[in-house]
Amino acid sequence: MILTPEDQAILDGKQGEVLQKVMKSVVVYGETFGADHLVPITGSPHMVTSFGANTIQPYFDMLDELIGAGLQSKEPFTVDPRPMEYDRLNPGLVEKLAFNLIFGKQAAYEQQLKKLGLKDENSFTCTCYLPEVGNTPAKGDFLAWSESSAVVFANSVLGARTNRNSGGIDLMCDIIGKAPYFGLLTDEGRQATWLVEVKTSSKPNAQLLGSAIGMKVMEDVPYIVGMDGFLGTGLNPATEAYLKDMGAATASNGAVGLYHVENITPEAVESGRTLLKPGYQTYVIDDHELARVYQAYPLLWKNANTQPDYIFVGCPHLARHQLESWIEQLENQLRHHKANRLKIPVYLFTAPDIQKAFISEKPDTYQTLLSQQIHITSICPLMYMNNPLCGRKPIVTNSNKLRTYTTARFYLDEDVLQIAVTGKLPSRGGK
Amino acid sequence: MTERIFKGRPVLSGACQGEALVSRQGFNTLASFQKSVILRSKKAICSDQNNSDLFQKEMTGKILCIPQTIGSTTGGLVLQTIARLGNGPKAILFSEHIDSLAAAGVILADIWDNHRFIVVDQLGQEFLHSVQQGQTITIAEDGTVTVK
């Protein structure tokens, strides 16, 4: 790799041993992928690691070394959601004890994050790019983001350029303010090797479509056609939210870091099918294919017919209009069933900025929602279910990412609404 | 059994011998090690429900043979953690180019924690098609992998 004289001096240890290790990490990482230079990071960072789990001690030790050397991110950063919020989602006494054991370093870790350049107290969300949060990179920005759902959104919907960086290496790049130039940072790396033809009879469920695409193309770049008939052309808040949820599923069910959607996402609008690399493969998704994918999900509950404890909606975090829409649909269900409260408590997960704004703007509505068993929290549902005691609970979700990493049972949105108000599980939803 | 030799690129070089643990689909690092990391188990049992090759199989001390890693971007952090916990595989063999998550994890473990996973990539599809669970694998410093 060719470095500037300043970067070479850092690599040679002339600015201390710790910064040398930072530079070495970034250079070795880049060289593994054939990067021949570093590019300046032009947007604000986002990092995946938000949890003070006792077990990730090597990571905390690494951060202590960085802090001890007086290093921090060149720009303030946002980070994924917190694992706990007891006043919004109280797991129970024994579970709380387990949380305190598992995430015993949360407070200490948040202190480390502040020293390293955390933007503010509300910076804990996987959807940092939402306007209320404000870490929204511009088209063409170079980044070194982690958090797979944020990476795929930044690349695909915003047209920024970031590789799928892992927790740890993201911070290394952010400290030196540069990222190795390879993969999704390059024009060539953004070419599609799959043509995905969506031929369903109606607008497919975003989370199910993303799952099918992710499982098929894995880490490749798909060029998706047929969606403009359902979503219209170009971007608007509803389409962005759809693509946010679809993208999170492509990234967790596979390893997609970038997708193009014909006539919708910025690079596809700009360049069309010239983004397809010669020799690309084709994957056709119709109703039958989506049904096949849905029915193949394993069911990990001990008792398939047990009544769920909770319903989790919002992985990744809900946009404000999605939050409002879920509340409206749940209240419609209550009215339709002439009920005052849901049979199964529903937790809606969203960014702290959105959660706080909703509660302060609508305090009376919020109290009514609580009485109806509709809750708004800003934690990470995946982290919640990492607690083995919580992970054993039968939980229903509309999130394919949550399904992938936990025992949560995936249902489509319309089924989720029914389950919430009746407490009864439809026959489908995992074999 | 016939001996087969494959040549890959040593990402982090080293020599070792061990038992093959094979996933023909992408290896979801977080989903696979999630339980073992949270519970700090001495033996890591694969907890990835989507991986029928590995689900509920022990991974500790094995030579993991995979196409690439997939899933959450905490994947590298998970590798860094299992390096310290000592319950991970002793080597990871990739049929494809190593992916960015795995690369970050093994490189940070090497530089910041002085723990080396032996890693060889680009061994080719034929390697992943032919290697079977439980076969003995020998890895040489230069990235030569012998399966028998």
Can you tell me about this structure?
The complex is a heterodimer of chains A (431) and B (148). With 431 residues, chain A is an alpha/beta fold. Chain A folds into 3 domains: 5-185, Aconitase, domain 3, CATH 3.30.499; 189-295, no CATH class; 310-422, Aconitase, domain 3, CATH 3.30.499.10. Helix content of chain A is 42%, strand content 13%. Chain A is built from 19 helices and 13 strands. Chain A has helices at 5-11, 17-32, 57-68, 93-102, 106-116, 148-156, 169-176, 206-217, 228-231, 237-253, 266-271, 287-295, 320-336, 352-361, 363-371, 381-386, 388-391, 400-405, 413-422; strands at 38-40, 46-47, 78-79, 178-180, 192-198, 222-225, 260-261, 276-285, 310-318, 346-350, 374-377, 395-397, 409-410. In chain A, strands 11-10-9-12-13 form a 5-stranded parallel β-sheet. In chain A, helix 2 packs across helix 7 (169-176), helix 8 runs parallel beside helix 10 and helix 8 crosses helix 12. Chain B has a single domain (4-147), classed as Phosphohistidine domain (Glucose Oxidase, domain 1), CATH 3.50.30.10. Chain B is built from 4 helices and 10 strands. With 148 residues, chain B is α/β, with parallel strands linked by helices. The relative contact order of chain B is 0.29. In chain B, helix 1 crosses helix 2 and helix 2 packs parallel to helix 3. The chains are: A alpha/beta (431), B alpha/beta (148). At the A-B interface, helix 2, helix 3 and helix 7 of A face helix 1, strand 6, helix 2 and helix 3 of B.
SSE arrangement:
The complex is a heterodimer of chains A (431) and B (148).
Chain A: H1 5-11, H2 17-32, E1 38-40, E2 46-47, H3 57-68, E3 78-79, H4 93-102, H5 106-116, H6 148-156, H7 169-176, E4 178-180, E5 192-198, H8 206-217, E6 222-225, H9 228-231, H10 237-253, E7 260-261, H11 266-271, E8 276-285, H12 287-295, E9 310-318, H13 320-336, E10 346-350, H14 352-361, H15 363-371, E11 374-377, H16 381-386, H17 388-391, E12 395-397, H18 400-405, E13 409-410, H19 413-422
Parallel strand pairs in A: 2-3, 5-6, 5-8, 6-7, 9-10, 9-12, 10-11, 12-13
Antiparallel strand pairs in A: 1-4
Chain B: E1 4-7, E2 9-12, E3 16-22, E4 27-28, H1 29-39, E5 63-66, E6 69-70, H2 75-85, E7 91-94, H3 100-112, E8 118-121, H4 125-130, E9 136-139, E10 144-147
Parallel strand pairs in B: 3-5, 4-6, 5-7, 7-8
Antiparallel strand pairs in B: 1-10, 2-8, 3-9, 9-10
Helix pairs in contact in B: 1-2, 2-3
